[in-house]
Design brief:
Strand content: 35-45%
Number of strands: 9
Shape: elongated
Mean pLDDT: 93
Strand order of the largest sheet: 1-2-5-3-4
Order of helices and strands: EEHEEHEHEHEEHE
């Protein structure tokens, strides 16, 4: 996920505003929590859960004044079940005058997080082989359809065309063979090493 997502639902007159934010460090979490608390300074509660790390090794949640395990834990549980990481989920509640009870609170905070998680585009980090491809303009036109199957990071148009792409190691042999055939071997391919690249899930 890259873009911040905000979603709102109303349950028994209480307003629940869910904010999903991409975070990479605990400092990111703290800064964003401070910003949300400032934005919704008049809210009854700002409950949250977050997961950090490539394997989700850092996890924390807060009920922010709601009864124990009725808000933060349900939010974190939703994140865990979705198997996402590097994400902060804050559910801001404006009390509407009707008590929901512990079970009702759990369902409300869980539903708020679940509904918001349906909205963003999620990405995964994948280690791909980065390549620099140099060829003529005429050959570039010949391989446009072929390149649609791969991740294009950059295209530079100069006296010739330079394409920076990333492929799976397992695709390397087939990629080189197909590209050579499509350009009649009039192509220069340079390996730039492996790089962690975010790809859409």
């Amino acid at each position: 996920m890259k873009d911040t997502i905000e979603n709102q639902i109303v349950i028994n007159k209480s307003k629940f505003i869910t904010t999903l934010i991409r975070v990479d460090t605990i400092e990111d979490v703290e800064a964003n929590l401070a910003a949300i608390r400032k934005k919704y300074y008049d809210a009854t509660h700002n409950c949250y859960g977050y997961i950090l790390g490539t394997k989700g090794e850092i996890q924390k949640c807060s009920d922010d004044g709601e009864p124990s395990k009725t808000a933060g834990f349900p939010i974190l549980d939703v994140l865990q079940k979705q198997k996402v990481t590097n994400i902060l989920c804050v559910v801001t509640r404006y009390f509407g005058g009707t008590l929901l009870g512990t079970g009702g609170l759990v369902r409300a905070y869980s539903s708020s997080a679940s509904e918001a998680l349906k909205l963003p585009i999620f990405y995964a980090k994948e280690s791909l082989l980065k390549l620099e491809i140099k060829l003529s303009y005429s050959n570039y036109n010949n391989i446009l359809f072929f390149l649609n199957n791969y991740t294009i990071l950059e295209t530079i148009f100069d006296s010739e065309v330079t394409i920076i792409t990333a492929i799976k190691q397992s695709d390397k042999t087939m990629f080189f063979t197909d590209l050579t055939n499509l350009t009649n071997a009039k192509v220069e391919i340079t390996e730039l090493g492996f790089h962690d690249i975010e790809v859409i899930l």
